[in-house]
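Thread title: Can someone regenerate the structure for this chain?

I was given the following input by a collaborator and told the matching structure tokens would be attached. They weren't. Posting the sequence so someone can regenerate them.
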Amino acid sequence: MKKNQKGTKSYAVFGMGEFGKSVALELARLGVDVMAIDSDEEELASVAEYVTEARVMDITNVRAYEKLGLSNMDAVVVAITRNMNATLMAILQAQEAGVQDINVKALNDIQAEIFSKIGATHIIMPEKSEGRRLARTLARSDIFEFIELKENICMLEISMRKEWIGKTLLELNLRNAYHINVIAIIKDGEANMAVDPNWVMSEDEHLLIVTDKESVGKL
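Best answer:
Regenerated them for you:
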């Protein structure tokens, strides 16, 4: 699969388990080129009509990679959990093809360390991430959503503080006071992304903010 001439990005997703399938389908929904790869034809059948290309192949066979065109990919996602050899092979072949963004699902810290050492640029541990997210949400009753964007950056939906009610964002100057950036104002489940600095805050509103993790504690 070659990159679209109009600049559409191309991604290869190895492994059509629940995680890999969700990644492939969401990427396809976002309008990018997706090559879904798995050794199980039945697993591929569930995504074939939605992705750009669906390939059945033995992921452990080095020769099978020759016609994949991984060098044309903007990123690779390796979401194989049932076959360690297949995961290692996919990482090594993506690295050899010059792929700069290699995202790999790991089941534990040992796997994460191994995958990083052989070329994975991003390690994904869904269970651990979801656990941290839930814990942070439970620990703070004023946090309704917590999404980790980067190692030290997160996005949160927070309730309106009493001292903020009746004031504008300009008056509150939250960026300087708390090191947070307001990206949306949420009311009745609807998010207004066109944030007006003169908007007067009300009790029934939530704020969608981006900040660093250190500043979360200060909030």
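The chain has two domains: 10-124, 129-218.
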